[in-house]
Amino acid sequence: MVDREGFPIMHEVFEGNRADSTTVGAMLDALEERQGKKEMITVVVDRGMASQDNIDLIKSRGYHYVVATRQGERDRFLCEFEDEEGFVEVVRPTSATKSHQKKSHVEVKKKECGGEVYVLVVSEERTVKDRSIREAHERRLLCDLKKLKERITCGRLVREDKVYEAIGRIKERYPRVAKYYEISYDEGELTFTVREALKTHQMVTIVLPTADGRVLKVRRATRPTSEQIELYSKLNVPHEPIKPKKIWL
Q1: Number of helices and strands (H, E) in the chain?
Q2: Is residue 123 pLDDT above 80, yes or no?
Q3: Long-range contacts of the stretch 79-83 (C-beta < 8 A, 24+)
Q4: What pLDDT, on the 0 to 100 scale, is given for residue 179?
Q5: Distance from C-alpha of 34 to C-alpha of 184, rounded to nearest angstrom
Q6: Sequence-distant contacts of 152-157: CB under 8 A, at least 24 apart
């Protein structure tokens, strides 16, 4: 626990094999025992502790909280990330003791949803880092799948249940990118391809002015099907092919 200036007030040490998500209640108990129940305390937890049970526990104690959302929640705001309007740059002054240090470029947007306040954050350096991590995971995924295919082809792995176990382990090893691939095993042959939905149903935001001067934002497929083209024609939405930008969030 730290004060407003960032100086530590207290800390707690837990067993090394204890999951972080199970420590929130104990920390709140220790906080109230040593400091008393005070207003305007903000609890900050990382993504590993951000289970709904822990958030409900923090709220039940009457504390404010700041938490990093998990991937599933971030996906809800993909449209907001694509819309550059509303983002504000965060000015981060260089430390007097580290004048040589370069601060990363960060922009934020405030979004209220369901009684919660979300702060959407875009960082150029983090985008580059995440892309690099995903690409490295994809290379390793494909390498492991090729090795598995070679084992099957050469007859070193025959039992079907063992093949599926190997596929499962690979998926668990690279969850960030495995979900983008269709991996199947049939009649002694292993195949893996990019999911068709990613090829034909990528979405972009089309900005169209309306007759009364407003702006209409429409989400549409980059390679629309015939049914989608018919719908877009009725809505007067352009339906020529669009090359989407590949953005890792």
Answers
A1: 9, 9
A2: yes
A3: 79/205, 79/217, 79/219, 80/109, 80/111, 80/120, 81/120, 81/122, 81/247, 81/249, 82/204, 82/205, 82/247, 83/205, 83/217
A4: 84
A5: 56
A6: 152/185, 152/188, 152/189, 152/190
